[in-house]
Amino acid sequence: MDLPRCARLSLSLCSLAKRKKGKEEYCAIAWGNIMLFDYKSQSRSDKFSIYLWPMPKNIDDLQNPLGICGSNPNKDSPCLELEFDRYIHPVVFPNDAQIEQYANFLNGIDPNSAHARGSTVAPASKLTTEVCDEDLEQLREIVKRDPLSETSEQEKELLWRLRHECKEMPDSLPRLLDVVRWNCRDDVSHLYTLLKDWPTVSPETALELLDCTYPDLRVREFAVSCLGENLSDDQLSQYLLQLVQVMKYELYVNNALSKFLLKKALINTRIGHFFFWHIKAEMQHFSSTHLRFGLLLEAYCRGCGAYLKELNKQVEALEKLTKLSHSLKERKEDSQKAIKYMLEQVGQADYLEALKDFSSPIDNSFTLGELIIEECKILGSAKRPLWLVWKNKDSMADKLHPTNSIIFKSGDDLRQDMLTLQVIRIMDDIWKNEGYDLRMMPYCCLATGKEVGMIQVVQNAETVFHIQKGGGKKAAFQVDSSQLHRWIKEKSRLKAVGQHAEEKAYESAIETFTLSCAGYCVATFVLGIGDRHPDNIMVNEEGQIFHIDFGHFLHHIKKKYGIKRERVPFVLTEDFMRVIAKDADYPTKTKEFEKFNELCGKAYLCLRRHANLFITLFTMMLNAGIPELQSFDDVEYLRKTLAVEKKEQQAIEYFQAQFHEAYGGAWTTKLDWFFHGVKHM
Question: What CDD domains has UniProt attached to this entry (predicted)?
Answer without folding.
Answer: PI3Kc_I
